[in-house]
Amino acid sequence: LMMSLRDPYVIAMQKAAEPPQGARNDHDIFRGLAARMGFEEEFTGGRDEAAWLRWLYDKTRQSVRAEGLGLPDWQELQDKGWHRTPPPDPATVMMQAFREDPETHALATPSGKIEVFCKTIDTFGYADCPGHPAWMEPYEWLGKTGKYPLHLISNQPSKKLHSQLDQGSVSRSGKINGREPVMMNPEDAAERGIGDGDLLRLFNDRGACLGAALVSAQIRRGVVQMSTGSWWDPDDDGMCRHGNPNVLTRDVGTSSLAQGPTAHSCLIEVELFTGTAPPVRAFEPPVIRPRKD
What is the value of pTM for the model shown? Predict the structure, then answer.
């Protein structure tokens, strides 16, 4: 269930096709494992998959009712297929209760207030995580360039969710000659003899991938943009022929504390690809060898 101002819809997903012979849903897989281990009844609680879905939905209806959100009953949702929750009235104000009465509605911090300094984090002694807000120089950025003068921004794609359905028609419609587009400023492109649609090689010390030029003044000089999500398609040297920027970005966490992903920003160089363009093979199914009895 996705219920927020940005995604207020509840969708009743329907079966698209009957499963292949012998295929089981997740519930039945784990039910079978539980049966072999001797606690099937404890696992299922007397419910099959359909009964669990209905039970979970009814619990959600009860919990959101206290927040003033009314959801249709199970059968009504199945018949209509979807439901849109209305925007809150009055509009939600973040931390409204705290703002109106900070003593009665204290925050879940040691002081009960908004804290700029965190003693706990400060005691960790991490060089890259002081206990207070501080500007930390990025590991790669335009403020300190060397042999790689372009800053790659690899954003989330608009025609797929991460890499899901990259093989679909919607995702492929956004590619240029089957490659992931690389948006470049006209001045950066002219310096490198690059024109719209040209096949490009993006590279740094970590790796390389191919992409297709999309020359546009919508991006600033010194920056190139290539969306994430193209299925990895390495050649014998490890270069991605399709256009997956993960071969260029650093596989190191954001800090000693957070360890979040840093896969959307790095320094690279871009050049025209010379020679015969290799075919994209990311969507070719693997060879399935017959089982030997």
Answer: 0.73
